[in-house]
Design goal:
28% helix; two-stranded antiparallel ribbon; 21% strand; 87 residues; elongated; alpha+beta; binds zinc ion; 4 strands; 3 helices
């Protein structure tokens, strides 16, 4: 798993949970996966619903590491090939 905020990667999920990684959090309405203990301590807080959320002073200011990989799926161009068949 990879921290959405700083990009730190940790291999073992059990180790990550023990170390205090956050499995998901919200930036406003947007859900993001995984925050490492360092980032969660700095930019996250427990919201009214008991969910982890980005502190108001950081909302909209974080460049998320998880955004790139999601974009890749639909940025890939569709190549249209016209093939003429000669019989
Ligand atoms: Zn982090």
């Amino acid at each position: 798993m990879k921290c959405s905020i700083c990009g730190t990667v940790i291999d073992c999920i059990e180790t990550a949970i023990d170390a205090g990684w956050i499995p998901y959090f919200y930036d406003g309405e947007t859900e993001h996966e995984y925050a490492c203990p360092g980032c969660s301590e700095t930019v996250l807080q427990v919201g009214q619903a008991g969910e982890m959320e980005v502190r108001s002073e950081y909302q909209g200011k974080i460049v998320y590491q998880d955004a790139e990989s999601k974009d890749c799926h639909w940025v890939m161009g569709i190549e249209v090939r016209s093939e003429s068949q000669d019989n």
